[in-house]
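Human: Here is a favour to ask of a fellow structure person. Comparing notes only helps if you start from a blank page. Give me a protein, with the fold worked out from its sequence. Please set it down just below, with no commentary around it:

Assistant:
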Amino acid sequence: MTALVLGSLVGACSTAGGVPGPPGTDDPRETLASLGYQHVTLQSFGYGGGSFTWEAPGEALTDEQSDALAGLKLIPGNTSCPQDIPEYSLVTVDAAGQERQVGTNAFNAGCGQQVVLDYESLKPLLATLECVGTGEASTQLSAAPTVQAGDGCQHGFFSYRGEPSRWVKVDPTSVGGPHTFELLHCEGKTTGLELFDEAGAVLLAQGQGDGSSASACAKLTHPLAAGQRYALRVTSQAVSVGGHVNLVIRRD
């Protein structure tokens, strides 16, 4: 599991255009530290894997994440336009309700965009995330990454014909009680969720979705005990539409 293999849902060759610096300045070499955040979304995309989404309201940001956001910098994008590289997009809503979207990649390639988010300045935020990207969950429980409930992550899972089921381990941390597990973006895909004890020996709950619409996704709700880990098997196979689905785990 890594937060460094990231990309945006807006490609490096997007026509979205540049994002201006903070109000009152024409210099793109600025930080975003002056903005208060009501909501933050990091959308990631990589053709070879690493796709996921992370969302957090301002009040849910950790001190480390707030510090990392304060250190973000906007810079002029260079003119290169590499293909098939991990890309990412950060969308923020400030205290005045103004939405900003800025993208980047490891090369700070603008591909027509005048302003990009400096990749180096984004690394501290990436280091705080434990989202599982497409291709990072394991087909073997023994090698499965551990995820936490309620951390804002929408973990990514590939959805192709014959795609094998993949495992993650679930840690409810210090908060027990009912938790809901739900897949998103399931149109054209059959999906399944199976929750087991930590050893993967006892099936506790399961859910299925037939993919007849985007919301026809596998979903289940089950109580989790604080301090105890669980095993979750995720199945998503393309019937008419490939790509990937996202997994959300939230405390009810």
User: Anything to note?
Assistant: The longest helix spans residues 63-70. Helices lie at 63-70, 119-126.
